[in-house]
Amino acid sequence: MLTTGNSFSGFSVDDIEAARVFYGESLGFAVKLNDMGILEITLPGGAPSIAYQKNDHAPATFTVLNFEVDDIDRAVDELVAAGVTLERYEGMPQDDKGVLRGKAQNRGPDIAWFLDPAGNILSVLSN
After folding, report:
1. What is the pTM of this model?
2. Domain chopping of the chain, boundaries
3. Strand ranges of the sheet holding 121-126, from the earlier edge strand across to the other edge
4. What is the three-state SS of the chain?
5. What is the mean pLDDT of the chain?
6. N or C terminus of the chain: which is more exposed, having fewer CB within 10 Å?
7. CA–CA separation, 114 and 37 (whole Å)
């Protein structure tokens, strides 16, 4: 087993200032740009993550952050009110709000996806 004292996730972005505004203002998370130009993000529940600028950034083709919520409809409404657009994926049975309703079909959580300014995929989900 790996012996470690702490852990955190990290991902790249193409514009650190746009990421600071999105994660800090649109999503309302605690953010801080450190002395090395890395954005330190405190996720809900206190977990740390970092975003770093990468000049040849390519958006992740998978979900980099999942946010568990009690009420998916409220979460989606809050995101839309903050100016966030929900993603729609061809072949996915998403409703008018962009939510895939997995719970009603006994096929996993209710989930909706959205992008950060760098094109990284994020989600809100309700089990």
Report:
1. 0.92
2. 9-126
3. 63-68, 121-126, 110-115, 100-101
4. CCCCCCCCEEEEECCHHHHHHHHHHHCCCEEEECCCCCEEEECHHHCEEEEEECCCCCCCCCEEEEEECCCHHHHHHHHHHCCCCECCCCCCCECCCCCEECHHHCCCCEEEEEECCCCCEEEEEEC
5. 94
6. N
7. 25
Taking Cα atoms as reference points, which of 31, 111, 30 lies closest to residue 66?
111
Cα dist from 120 to 2, 10, 14, 60, whole Å: 29, 12, 10, 5
- Distance of alpha carbon 86 from alpha carbon 91, whole angstroms: 15
For position 55, what pLDDT does the model report? 93
How far apart (Å, rounded) are the C-alpha atoms in residues 79 and 69? 12
Question: pLDDT by residue (tens digit) across 61-119?
Answer: 999 999 999 999 999 999 999 999 999 999 889 999 999 999 988 889 999 999 999 99
- What's the confidence (pLDDT) of residue 109? 95
